[in-house]
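P.,

For your records, the input lines for the assembly:
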Amino acid sequence: MEEFLERRDSESKQIVVFSLENEEFGVPIECIKEIRKLSDLTITKVPRSKKYIAGVVNLRGRILPVIDLRVRFGMKESITDASRIIVFEVEEDVCGAIVDAVTEVVKVPVDDIEPPAGAVSGIQRDYIEGIAKIGERLVVLVSLELIAKTQD
Amino acid sequence: MALDFDATQEEIQIFLAEAKEQIETLEEGIMSLEQEQGDIDAELLQSIFRAAHTLKGSSAALGHVDMAKLTHEMENILDHLRKNTIDITPELIGLLLGGIDALRIYANEIYQGKESGYDSSELVESFKDFVAASLETAKAPAKETPAETEKETPLELVFPDDLKAKAFQLAAPDKKVFEIGVQLETENTLPSVRAYQLIMLLEDLGKLVFTQPGLEELEQFQDGKLKALLVTTSDAKTVKAGIAKIPDCKQIVVREAKEVPKAEKKTSNVSAEVTEAEEDEQDEQPKDAKKQGQILIAPTIRVDVSVLDDLMNLVGELVIDRTRLTATLQKLQEGNDLEAVIESLAQTGGHIGRVTENLQDLIMKARLLPMRTLFRKFPRVTRDLATKAKKKIRFEMSGEDTEIDRSVIEQISDPIIHLLRNAIDHGIEMPEERERLGKDPTGTISLIAEQEESYIVIRIKDDGKGIDPEKIVATAQRKGLITRERAQNLTPKEAVELIFLPGFSTAEQVTQVSGRGVGMDIVRKNIENLSGNIQIITEVGKGTEFRIELPLTLAIMRTLLFESSNTLFSIALSAVAETNRVSHSEIKYVNKQKAMMLRGRILPLIHIEEIFDLPAPEMRGEHFYVIVVRRQRTQVGIIVEKLLGEEEVVVKTLSKLLGDVRGLSGATILGHGEIAFILDVPVLLEYGTDGRVE
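Structure tokens returned:
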């Protein structure tokens, strides 16, 4: 397996894997600017903003909106010590997303990524870019940019 | 059709930047010529002439033949004006302004790289006809032709001694002084353009001490003989080869000059010209930089190098502070004397405070632009509007040097144009009417900018008929904007301010010139969006003044900070009329709406929580606070839990990703990194009473 990955290096993607509830999701590493411990930042709630907007944070003098991905995907709000904020760019904007935990960064051969078949655990198909097979595990690849941009 | 020039993109950019500057100089100059009328300022004429002249040379060099032809004719007319062989008439001014419009079209063609289909040949003809006609009727024989006699003289290279001496002064050991003579083909239609190219070329080669003709005299240049003194490191061959590249050179002489014995000082005409030419050269350089910074590449900014140096120094100070902090941290880790650590922290903190304050000041200054950038287009706008409205108007401006934040400049232009339009259309009376009233038939409109504390005040004043409050009330009532009772209770000032109501200015009063669907309500809204405000001072029969107050800068705002439901808010201090500590018993209910009496008037109240759908506050103590937000007649009291005091904040926009956060215009970061939300004043005012509802 190791050897196989090495050989196909040019045709593999580095995926940051994070968890929500008991499921695993992934985002290509190039889409992520940084990952912060949620407890390091203070979230300020924004009056009248959308339910899934946890609030805004002050990241080095920039005020970023933060999306609670659990709420966005219709799960119950839950914040623990392991919670992280994934910071990513959306067009000209920078945005954060709260996830339960960031578990690992893996190299996945492109061949092991399958196109999305349909909605997965209540997440709209539009946001899903594919399903990555990592050994026996299935990781749902999502587009944070679309999730942040689409307002519903 | 695509336009193709033998020039790099960079050269085209430079040409465009310069062209824009020259076109503006021309326009401004011609406008003032018209204002001055009989009394012609020779210096002004000279500067206009020079602008036309330079434009001719550069457009010819670029290869835009039509533009060169057009500028040639304009230059010709200006030359006649300069020599006083023709008179300034409104027709002439109109022609010249038409020429300027055409030049703008051509400049735009070059910018877009394709032809617009515009043809200026008719205009060129009318220029020619005009000159011919005026010369015939007026001081016809004035045009001298001394050039004719010199035409056949051979190329002679004699230079005044004092010029040569000057050249040798400039020549360092590695530099030589060359005497240059060029005979140009005179059959060529525009020998002056070639001469211009030659002068430009020579200037590139070294220091050009003298040319005959000088840049100023190129227009009269007819004999095709150009003489020059050049100080350069190049050798004679290179100079000659360079000159030979320019077409139409019949004969070229380049020889090294011999040093002359020091002569006593002579103040001949020629030497005076030299110093003048030098001065030109000197101030040309920075101008170029400015030109390129200002237009075409609008988002860039020109900053004084000294400002950058100061910024650099301040950043250096901050770096020192960082080192100090690291040192302090180390002391702390080593468990050193706590008091020393505290002392050192306090010092560093104080220092950082001062440095950042200076930094803030400097950055604000770097963002400022003079009002001139905005004002320069108004004389023309006013003239065109006045012509269309058939009114006689004298337009005066002052305070063009007043500086204001660049973002404000961009947004205040439309409101000012609208107010100028109003002044011309509705303010100034027709000339006959004015005469009948014993007024000067020419109306005066003034545009004045000045700084008052942290505000910039822009005033648009006319000496027209003023605004009649009774007529305004009648119109507002007819349009159903106010009730009858309301109409009866208005003070004259309040009545006049009804013109700011949406729907007040409608098609009925829209003349050809004014009102393109924008009303005074939009003007006010635009100004309020800039955290400014607008007032009207008017007297029937005497005139009207619109007074616009704008903050010096948008990025930093003085605010009142308060807290409610564990959320920090701040509101522009300019919108806060007063704050009051109020007890529960003072709240009354009017139609289920909370209100209180404030100096005999009903002040509608609203909890900040209601505006933002926050959980209803549990009003603990006996008292709470009311922030009275007032703009013109509209007022509302915002109930909040705790006032935290005044604070100067840096305004940051809120991300669009948050969705529609109505009522918030931005956010800011406070001293300890907390985020406070900035309230959107116009939205708050919607909860208040205004002129319409009671």
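Two observations worth noting. The domain at 2-149 of chain A is CATH 2.40.50.180 (OB fold (Dihydrolipoamide Acetyltransferase, E2P)). Chain A touches chain B at residues 42, 44-50, 53, 56-58, 61-65, 67, 90, 93, 95, 148-149, 151 (CB under 8 Å).

Regards
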